[in-house]
Amino acid sequence: MRTDEVVEALRLPEECLRDVRVPKGKLVDQGGFTAADQRRLRDGIEELRWVAVVKPTVVGIRGHDDGVRCVPELQVMTLQLRAGAAAARVNELVHRVFPLPLILVTTTGSEEGSGPIVSMALKRLSQGQAERAVLDGDVLSAQLSAFGPEGSELERIFLRELALGKQPQTDLLALYEGWMDRVLALVAARVTGVFKTSETVEQAKERRSALEEMSKLELDLARLYSGARKEKQTSRQVDLNLEIKRLQARLVEAKGKL
């Protein structure tokens, strides 16, 4: 699958579309990043392009400003990374640079069979710096296959569900959260086998929390499995196996919330 297929799936009006290259220097200079993160941006990015902007005057959906989140418009960008770049970290840094909520479609070019990564993140106004927006929670992302929408039934459904007309229309924040929920539904569907969007904002938050807990539990279980294989003392093996069973039960419980 290509980045343009994802952008096209949004079904945005032609007036929303742009084609502007964003210089890497702009990212590095405005981000306030550490030296290590500056290197990640300079060495990891091949090209960043601003491909669409969703404005109230174009889509007929009002902006949002509640004193915590200010969303006068939404942006869509495509990012091409060089081989070996730390995709998750670079994506997070790009989301941090821009003050408005962003749909970022990233190609890594490093793994055969891997398609673009779709990532999104909520923003809130900074409490310490007036008029500055910061990430509100972790970046949500899902990687697609490289074989086009015909390669996965779940991805075909996902692309159809991205259409602008299928999202909440209350305001631009609700619209963005609708798109986030589609990404969340794809991530959950890869566990459950069923693509199902959330019925309420609260349900979406619970599902995302469950996925985050599952990710942590799986890492903890991998560590415990490794420790149990190496452990020589019988009493310690028993303790590790009990802990493994406890985390396995929590994992099943978390999956049930998807």
Report on this model:
The protein is 47% helix and 20% strand. With 258 residues, it is of the alpha+beta class. The chain is globular. Strands 1-2-5-6-7-10 form a six-stranded mixed beta sheet, sandwiched between helices.
Tags for this entry?
single chain, about 260 residues, alpha+beta, six-stranded mixed sheet, two-stranded antiparallel ribbon, 9 helices, 10 strands, about 45% helix, globular
Structure in a nutshell:
It is built from nine helices and ten strands.
Structure classification: alpha+beta
Q: Could you state the order of secondary-structure elements as H and E? A: HEHHEHEEEHEEEEEHHHH
Average pLDDT score: 87
Tell the overall outline: globular
Q: N- to C-terminal separation?
A: 26 Å
Number of E-type strands: 10
Q: Oligomerization state of this entry?
A: single chain
Number of helices: 9
Q: Which percent band covers the strand fraction? A: 15-25%
State the strand order across the main sheet: 1-2-5-6-7-10
Helix coverage percent: 40-55%
Largest β sheet strand count, sense and barrel closure:
6 strands, mixed
Low-confidence stretches: none
What is the gyration radius calculated from CA atoms? 20 Å
